[in-house]
Amino acid sequence: MHYGTQSYQTRKERESMRLLPILLFGACLSPSAFAGDLNIVIEDVPDSQGTVRGAVYADEASFMKPAQAKTTFRAAAVKGEVHIAVHDLPAGHYAVTVYQDKNDNGKLDRNDQNFPTEPYGFSNDAQGGPPKFAQCAFDFDGKSKTFSITLNY
């Protein structure tokens, strides 16, 4: 009779080993696995004054309320175009707003009739004052995507 060193797995260990591939596969399907870069080209920036600010919104309830945005961004204004990259954005239904904050006061300035006095724009180049979430919304599948927004002034 030979008494060697053999390893025996308990039933619990075998079941755990069978679950490992399922758990690993599930981790690959987590929402973060479907996150990508949203690249926004802001066109027709009239000058290099101030900053370009914007926000990405995930629903109608938060739309145009920066404190409730999925994410916000800002970059130095550059005459012509400004490129923004929103990294690791999960797949979803979104709308984007942007404006050139010429005096860097952190808000879109308006005149006495409540019309913007600084350049602004929306995803889908939505028009109308102000557009609804549905007009600006687009589907993002979590893969890198690039689109443009033209500033109005």
Please sum up the structure shown.
The protein is mainly beta and 153 residues long. It has helices spanning 11-28, 133-136, and strands at residues 35-45, 51-57, 71-76, 80-90, 92-101, 120-122, 138-140, 145-150. The strands form two sheets. Strands 2, 3, 5, 6 and 7 form a five-stranded antiparallel beta sheet that branches. The chain has a three-stranded mixed beta sheet with strand order 4-1-8, with no helix packed on it.
Task: Give the key terms.
153 residues, mainly beta, 3-stranded mixed beta sheet, 2 helices, 8 strands, elongated
The class by helix and strand makeup works out as mainly beta
* Cα end-to-end separation: 92 Å
Helix content: 10-25%
* Record field, number of beta strands: 8
Protein described:
The chain is mostly beta strands and 153 residues long. Helix content is 14%, strand content 37%. The chain contains two helices and eight strands. The strands form two sheets. Strands 2, 3, 5, 6 and 7 form a five-stranded antiparallel beta sheet that branches. It has a three-stranded mixed beta sheet with strand order 4-1-8, with no helix packed on it. The longest helix is centred in the N-terminal third of the chain and has 18 residues. The chain starts with 10 loop residues before the first helix and ends with a strand. The model has no long low-confidence stretch (mean pLDDT 87).
